[in-house]
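Handout for the seminar on molecular recognition.
Each group receives one record of this type.
Step one: identify the two inputs.
Step two: read the structure output and locate the region that could contact adenosine-5-diphosphoribose.
Step three: write two sentences on what you found, then compare them with the reference statements printed after the record.
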Amino acid sequence: MPGQAVAHAGRTGDDRRVSDYRNIVILTGAGISAESGLATFRGADGLWEGRRVEDVATPGAFRRDPALVHHFYDARRARLAEVEPNAAHNALARLDAAWSGELLLVTQNVDDLHERAGSKRLLHMHGELKRGWCLACGERFAWEGPMGEGAVCPDCTTAGQVRPDIVWFGEMPYEMERIDQALSRADLFVSIGTSGAVYPAAGFVQTARYCGAHCLEMNLEPSQGSIFFHESLIGPAGQLVPAWVDALLATPTNPARCRDRGRGPRPSAN
Ligand code: APR
């Protein structure tokens, strides 16, 4: 497998084999879309570089200056038409199609590259650029093209009350209950291309590990929560993820182990 592997020796306490895995939860962040040409949030040239989060990604920002907020998200929505899924998105879609056990792909990304690659068991915990939310009637709906301040709700036809269906700072991410349930049943938790700077996603590794999952991260650099993973693979997602998926799909699942697999939280091995 390409990239530098860092096994956290002495801290793993995890004796399971790849053939034991049945239920997988995968978390992705902006790093998986970087090789498609979408900017990440943090670091040099990141979306937050030179921009205050509070100015564009909070409910208060939208109340204060909706034009500025719409401009930021309209530009990002328009950019989606110029990019394509990369080898990492394609590999996860291949895994989704081939994996007979449970699988949930939880993305923090608001782009549509996972679904364009073909992933089906997918959940956008931070919302989607191509969806709108009407503050007048509460409906959420698909949205193409610019939104702008005067956007009209397709359900109640109110103008000027439509916002991007994006989870801003201070708001609750979507489907947390479903994510918690999947984490509690996971044998394998995989985090790809996320800095581990933003909760609750940054805490998923601790939940998964506590519930007994093997925890693997793939990132260009160790994430902020790197210490909680059994293994870290350091390198670009476009190389690491396809190689990891190939290896996983080449390993026959151990049916006896799958039948024995308990449900619900189990104490961590260490
Ligand atoms: N392959 C793998 N990892 C990469 C690549 C790549 N080609 N390029 C960058 N990365 C890594 C970076 O090293 C970094 O650790 O991806 C991570 C991206 O981190 P962030 O920019 O913080 O993005 P993310 O973790 O998704 O941010 C979480 O913060 O601002 C909010 O709501 C926003 O969903 C976002 C959340």
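Reference statements: The mean pLDDT is 89. The chain is about 30% helix and 20% strand.
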